[in-house]
């Protein structure tokens, strides 16, 4: 297990405004940590570490920035008269349940604040550690939209071990999905990233979508791998070393950050056919408004 350094800082703001034209539903994010001990080779957030003066490879995995005052800052922001209780996504640039969370509990504190303010939110994670906060998630679900999204690119352990070396096993994520869903928390799965030549075959995608459905996911989202600056420099040497036979394909596919449009469209269409066959819907983010109702937002 790598030696991880936690760097404690004080943040000025907890809520980050996201301005993505095609994603008007996703307007606010919250990341208690920067960097991620889960060390996924494809992580698109790697580039962010450069802004801190660190490298996007090993430093991203092993130098984790901890926003120690996140919870009081968030509470202050949620109390602001101009805040309209819009939906917030937790974990867009780190896993909010990476190992650091067991030490600092910042995600837990943020969820408690969202529950107290009936503020809708979604959480994206690869860790069954989220089960620790089940009671808070249920409380939040009673007063606002709350969605937990488990990221599961594959159930094949021989691939998982290489691409997500410090993450909990995919089977443990399915178990957590089942626990949360049975308890009444709205859950979904992101089949992402879909990695050309590794996880984009029909069998892998069907296995994940089927397992998602069988374990209580209400929807399955998908996304083909993209390799932007900061990620590509870490991913390509990994590929050269671990799956050298794929190198020519990637050199052709990823001259820029995105795979060819035709390829992405084919993959997306295949996932959509799977969803239709297995009775699933695509990714659904929580609504921007709180429900204000004492019922589960499912
Ligand atoms: S768990 Fe998410 S944030 Fe963490 S390294 Fe993997 S992809 Fe990146």
If you had to describe this structure to a student in words, what would you say it looks like?
The model is unreliable at 287-298 (pLDDT under 50). The protein starts with a strand and ends in a 20-residue tail after the last helix. It has one domain: TIM Barrel. The longest helix has 18 residues, at 261-278. The protein is of the alpha/beta class and 298 residues long. 37% of the residues lie in helices and 15% in strands. Helix 8 runs parallel beside helix 11 (261-278). Strands 2-3-6-7-8-9-10 form a 7-stranded mixed β-sheet. A 3-stranded mixed β-sheet has the order 1-5-4. The protein has helices at 58-62, 70-79, 100-104, 106-116, 134-143, 157-163, 170-183, 202-214, 232-242, 247-253, 261-278; strands at 5-9, 16-17, 28-30, 33-34, 63-67, 88-90, 121-125, 146-151, 186-194, 220-224. It has 11 helices and 10 strands. It binds iron/sulfur cluster.
Name some characteristics of this structure.
single chain; 298 residues; alpha/beta; TIM Barrel; seven-stranded mixed β-sheet; three-stranded mixed β-sheet; 11 helices; 15% strand; binds iron/sulfur cluster
